[in-house]
Fold each of these.
Amino acid sequence: MKIGVLASGGGTNLQSLIDHWRKGTLAPAELTVVGANVATAFALERAAAAGIPTFVLSHKTFAAREEFDRALAAELRARGVELVVLAGFMRVLTPAFLAAFPHRVVNIHPALLPSFPGTHAQKQALDYGVKLTGCTVHFVDTGTDTGPIIAQTAVPLLPDDDEEDLRERILAEEHRLLPAVVRAIAAGKVTVEGRRVRVAGADAPADARLRSL
Ligand code: GAR
């Protein structure tokens, strides 16, 4: 299955996908293209270093959100992309994009949705005072971080955490969860019934870290 990754920033999740792909542990998924809406996104350099084709499509050059989304979908389609992975892509996508990839766009979010959607999820968790947060991989729908949940991992907040401590602890789990989900989708193990997503072979959380995959 041909994967297109979209990113806006540093791209450590992209790097994790690249590392798995190189080791052969992302198969049957293959990284086909990496796109960014920001020309300076370091994710583009990571992709180039791995020999993956890249493109930049700046949302600022489009008058309307839908126009950007249509152009973005066309770019990915032209490259044969079958599954779109948002890995730190900081744009909300409209139906103009999603219609081109029904149930074929996934996002990783640094919280246990539906808690703390949107931006600054780690700060939201710290400010609220929860004891557990985590990361979620979900299908993208037209809401902000509201689509059907595929897999989650819980991460504890420690008493002296600042935002950076928590960001790093969650990222370590993101780097494990996202490749696992991409591999499962590419292998045809993921089915969706309404809001319920089933991953074949994934049982109830098997260890103390409360992983769903
Ligand atoms: C990740 O923590 C990801 O979950 C988050 O941005 C970071 C990107 O890091 N995404 C969102 O907050 C989306 N709402 P990375 O560029 O190093 O992969």
Note: The pocket of glycinamide ribonucleotide is lined by residues 7, 9-13, 87-88, 108-110, 121, 171, 174 (CB under 6 Å).
Amino acid sequence: MSTVTIDSALPFGSYRELGNQELRERIQKAKRELGSSLLILGHHYQQDEVIEHADLTGDSYQLSKLAADSADCRTIVFCGVHFMAETADILANRPEKLESRHGARVRVVLPDMAAGCSMADMAAIRQVESAWEQLGEVIDNSDITPVTYINSAASLKAFCGKHGGIVCTSSNAKAVLEWSFKQRKRVFFFPDQHLGRNTSLKMGIPVEHMPVWNPHEDVLGGNAEEAIQSSKVILWKGHCSVHQMFQAVHVHQFREKIPGIKILVHPECPQEVNDIADISGSTSKIIETVRNAPAGTKWAIGTELHLVNRLKKEHPEQEIHFLSPLVCMCATMYRIDLAHLCWSLENIVRGTVVNQIHVKEDVARWSLIALERMLTVR
Ligand code: 13P
Ligand code: SF4
């Protein structure tokens, strides 16, 4: 029997020249060849032409569950951003899963390594560790539950695992904060100040007890000692560049122009928008809310553009508007396109896997503790 050894990956360059129809056909062919050994996961912010090829779609919580529960597949191609692929790698390769597969790993592939998340990049592990140390000088660290939004690097999830903390998503943030307050009397929430503040406000925590920690300030994140000592939730000064574009004035303009319109937003939007919206929730909650509304309902939706445009197409029986007059799209989610998807799939078929995300063993072990807590708190 002869063996063919293929040792170099197909270069990406030539894929740029291919038309969408050819790319579509080649993606479908690669999917047929890989069969059930391949699972393509797609986040709701992906472009329609990419979503078309996803086996399963979801919000961050659902996609984590799908990766954790995956059974037959040996490769997950993640059409989303870097932190999502890291989370999938940790959950799909946790010890009991590896054991059930006799040590074989599920490979997680991110079609374009430049698909990061600007919010996740706003909190680096050395900044979080330095903040933790400084907090310990004015309050007791053992009184604080660290909570990281899933939109963060695996090293931050590991930090939470090590320090009795947890990961949250936009769909379980309230339940996670309730869990956190059962453990300890304060929460240190990173990297999204808006999700942290909006959720805490809904739980009745006054904004005066939520100091904002600016990692670029040398002393106590720019706070007075007393502000930290009287805190309930310490919020990291991070945000989503897409959702911070939605403003209260956009809500007022729609309400004036279209009486009866309902405002539906993501909790990554600033407080001024969340406070006056009719409904706020994760991408899946936004989709479900529109799906379950009677025909003729009028909406102005404050979340990423590709999802809102898809909802418009899927629900012609409703009147759907994008909440901002500006284009609010996630440039990094948009990095995943047909060319990168086709390139990564054809390399998997050839056995020359590209862009594999493999979280270091030590980081994965500690992150898993915080992620497993997240999956049980709902
Ligand atoms: P969800 O899909 O979990 O609501 O997250 C939105 C988001 O910003 C992902 O990056
Ligand atoms: Fe990150 Fe915002 Fe893009 Fe989500 S929408 S991936 S939070 S930049």
Note: Confidence is low (pLDDT under 50) at residues 1-5.
